[in-house]
Inverse folding.
């Protein structure tokens, strides 16, 4: 549809999806990783299963959307997978949940 928003609302939305914003790549991927780590009970041997689940969820969201998701979504999934792999491998990660 055709929407009109105030300058304040537009500025807040832009801040929220900025790289360091609440809905940006870093914070959103951190939340995905934290949730996956909590679900695993901290067991890194479950990382591959959880990575597959994250990817499956992304694929299902893409299908439900009916088209390719916005780039921010792909960047977020890529970041989450990279952080999960770092956690699995015991290497330095931006997320230490």
């Amino acid at each position: 549809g055709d929407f009109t928003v105030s300058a304040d609302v537009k500025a807040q939305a832009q801040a929220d999806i900025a790289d360091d914003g609440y809905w940006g790549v870093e914070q959103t991927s951190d939340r995905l990783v934290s949730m996956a780590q909590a679900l695993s009970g901290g067991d890194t041997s479950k990382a591959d299963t959880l990575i597959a689940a994250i990817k499956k969820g992304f694929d299902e969201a893409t299908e439900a959307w009916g088209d390719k998701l916005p780039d921010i979504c792909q960047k977020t999934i890529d970041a989450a997978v990279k952080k999960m792999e770092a956690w699995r491998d015991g290497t330095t990660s931006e997320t230490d949940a």
Summary: The helical segments are 7-16, 25-40, 47-65, 71-89.
